[in-house]
Amino acid sequence: MSDSGEKSYDVIIVGAGPAGLGAAIESGKAGARTLLLDENQKPGGQLFKQIHKFFGSKEHFAGMRGFLIGEKLLEEAVKHNVEFRLGARVWGLYPDGCVTATDEENSLNFKGKKIILATGASENALSFPGCTLPGVITAGAAQTFVNVQHVLPGKDFVVVGSGNVGLIVTYQLLQAGANVIKIIEAAPKISGYGVHAAKIRRAGIQILTGHTIISASGRDQVERVIIAKVDENFNPIEGTQQTILCDTVALAVGLSPRIELAGAGGCEMTYSKTLGGVLPVHDDNMETSFEHILIAGDLSGIEEASTALDEGRLAGCRAAYRLGLMTLEDYTSKKVMILNRLAELRCGPFGNKRMLAKEEIWKKAV
Amino acid sequence: MEESCLNKEKIVCRCEEITEEEIMAAIRGGADTLDAVKKSTRSCMGFCQGRTCKRLIASMLSSYFKRPIEDFLPGSLRLPITPIRLSILADTAISSDFGNEDAHA
Amino acid sequence: MSRLTAHPIIKIDEKKEISIYYEDQLLRAKEGETVAAALLAHGFRIFRYSAKRNEPRGIFCGIGQCTDCIMEIDGKPNVRACMTIVHEGMTIRTQKGLGQ
Question: Could you report how far apart the first and last alpha carbons of chain A are, in Å?
Answer without folding.
Answer: 45
